[in-house]
Amino acid sequence: AQSVTQLGSHVSVSEGALVLLRCNYSSSVPPYLFWYVQYPNQGLQLLLKYTTGATLVKGINGFEAEFKKSETSFHLTKPSAHMSDAAEYFCAVSEIGGFKTIFGAGTRLFVKA
Amino acid sequence: GAGVSQSPSNKVTEKGKDVELRCDPISGHTALYWYRQSLGQGLEFLIYFQGNSAPDKSGLPSDRFSAERTGGSVSTLTIQRTQQEDSAVYLCASSLGTGQTYEQYFGPGTRLTVT
Known about the structure:
The complex is a heterodimer of chains A (about 110) and B (about 120).
Chain A: E1 3-7, E2 10-14, E3 19-26, E4 31-38, E5 44-50, E6 56-58, E7 64-68, E8 73-78, E9 87-95, E10 101-103, E11 107-112
Parallel strand pairs in A: 2-11
Antiparallel strand pairs in A: 1-3, 3-8, 4-5, 4-9, 6-7, 7-8, 9-10, 9-11
Chain B: E1 5-7, E2 10-13, E3 19-24, E4 31-37, E5 43-50, E6 65-69, E7 75-79, E8 88-95, E9 105-106, E10 110-114
Parallel strand pairs in B: 2-10
Antiparallel strand pairs in B: 1-3, 3-7, 4-5, 4-8, 6-7, 8-9, 8-10
């Protein structure tokens, strides 16, 4: 069965600092991987996704993630945090050809001035 | 075009009452999903509709929960005899179709509070 683990329910960084949100998954087959962001009182918005090909994926707002099969990880990074990045971030996994997407519990990112 | 819309945005109901939550997907999207987001929890899959196929109801937590999708468009999630543990944000999403390269577009959610 597929599962997603996000390490750290809360992460706090200073403005301008590196953002690193961790995600590990388990899947018996090669997965599709996603990061979504949820701003307060809004629905989820896709940040980026990995399907096939290049393992380093670039998304919106300067975020990127790297699929590491050997580590079963898909960590999200951004070189320099901005106050507007404060939100909740969800990692998700689905099987190729499947429809059900399994979401992690989410990591709330706080950005300090 | 318009995104996914949900109504109402907030619903407060008394324990034991029935509630209906509505989702209007993006026009042309054949797949529609319902999720539940409880405080501090991830998204819990509830049900999935794809075109005219029978829905996958495997995520519905009890027989008090049901959903329908009329004409392959608007969907209604019904919770009968609501309980306090049903309090959560209910999110609807739609996508172009099957296959997980299709991005899911989420609505803003309905916040349900059962008193």
